[in-house]
Every structure is written in C-alpha cells, then in structure tokens.
Amino acid sequence: MGIVDDIRRYIPFNEQEERDKCLMLSLLQGDQDLFTRDNEWAHFTASAWITSPNRQLVRMCYHNLYDSWSWLGGHADGEHDLAAVALREVREESGLAHARLVSPDIYSLEVLTVDGHIKAGRYVSSHLHLNLTYLIEADPEETLFTKPDENSGLRWFTPEGAVAASSEPWFRERIYPKLNAKLK
C-alpha cells in the first residue's frame, strides 16, 4: 500500500476535499516528481493537527514565514510515508518527543497555495502544496522548544482559539474549522 492507495481510500469530508483528492490523484498519474522540492510548481507536504488526549486543546506554532499561528508540518523531501513526515516535523519543530499518530490514516487533505517568498536568502516562486494532514496526540505537559529558523513560539489553544489565532484567512475560514469539526 502506498500513498496513492491511501489517497484513494480517503473519504472526503466536504467538496474542497473531494476536488483536491481528484487533483492529487490526477497529478500522481504523471511522470513529475511530486515528493521533492525539485518540482517547483507542486509537491507533497504533511501537516499535523496536534491535540491533547481529551481533544480539548490544539497545539500551534507561530510560523515565522507566514507570520501567523499555524499547524506544524513540512515537505516530504523524497519521503513517501507522509504520516512519518508529519510526526518527524512535529518532533523537529516542537520537541514533542512522545507525540503519536492517532491513526496512520489521512485525517484531512488539501491543495494549498503558497505565495512567492524568500527562504534561506533565496527566492522561492509561488507554488502548490499537496498537503496530507494527520491527527497527532501529545501530552500538554511535555517540555517544548521552538525551531528558531521556522517558528518563534509554541502554544496550546482551545480548538476555537486555534482558529481565531491564525491570521491567514484561508486557514481561519476553511481549513482549521474543518479540522475541528472532524474532531467531534
């Protein structure tokens, strides 16, 4: 079983997910490498919706590039096991060493637009993130650390507070509320 099978098996939550699922599967039929940043117009990423065990809290980081509170995650960088990517990114970006996948199954999927920006002193053109989100659970008492080249804060929010803390309209209006709705 691979990522194509995982996406095929995924049952969309709403129209956005249905259409984005179709786009991902269509792109995966082509010859282009979608798992590294060498593909400058679209590549896979993995994100984590991190909750406390009782689902009353959501862990967010203050993402320096986007100047907003946001979920944690990152690029596949050649890895095809995106659940492992999400978990690795959580550990690297927050220090949550004991975080765990609630399920290896995809929790959410979305095609996200990324505006052109400067990263490591180099311009990165606008492109798409073919993003798979995984539900991850962590202990609110676990010690945390920031990853200064990527984030400048980590904090637990109520699920509604996490939505309100984001300054990115698309995430605040469409993505984070969807992730919270799926918690119920």
Written account of the structure:
The chain is an alpha+beta fold. The protein has one domain: Alpha-Beta Complex (Nucleoside Triphosphate Pyrophosphohydrolase), CATH 3.90.79.10. The chain has 5 helices and 10 strands; from the N terminus they run ααββββαββββββαα. The strands form 2 sheets. Strands 1, 2, 3, 4, 5, 6, 9 and 10 form an 8-stranded mixed sheet that branches. Strands 7-8 form a two-stranded antiparallel ribbon. Strand 2 and strand 3 form a beta hairpin. Helix 4 packs antiparallel against helix 5. The model has no long low-confidence stretch (mean pLDDT 94).
How many H/I helical runs?
5
Q: Which class in CATH terms?
A: Alpha Beta
User: Would you identify the CATH H-level superfamily?
Assistant: Nucleoside Triphosphate Pyrophosphohydrolase
Radius of gyration using CA atoms only: 15 Å
| Estimated structural class | alpha+beta
Give the tally of structural domains: 1
What's the assembly state of these chains? single chain
CATH topology-level name: Nucleoside Triphosphate Pyrophosphohydrolase
Reported for the largest beta sheet, the result is: 8 strands, mixed
How much is the average pLDDT?
A: 94
Low-confidence stretches: none
Please state roughly what percent of the residues sit in beta strands, choosing from under 5%, 5-15%, 15-25%, 25-35%, 35-45% or over 45%: 25-35%
What's the N-to-C terminus distance? 28 Å
Molecular shape:
globular
CATH architecture title: Alpha-Beta Complex
Helical content stands at: 25-40%
Tell me the series of helices and strands, N- to C-terminal.
HHEEEEHEEEEEEHH
Number of strands: 10
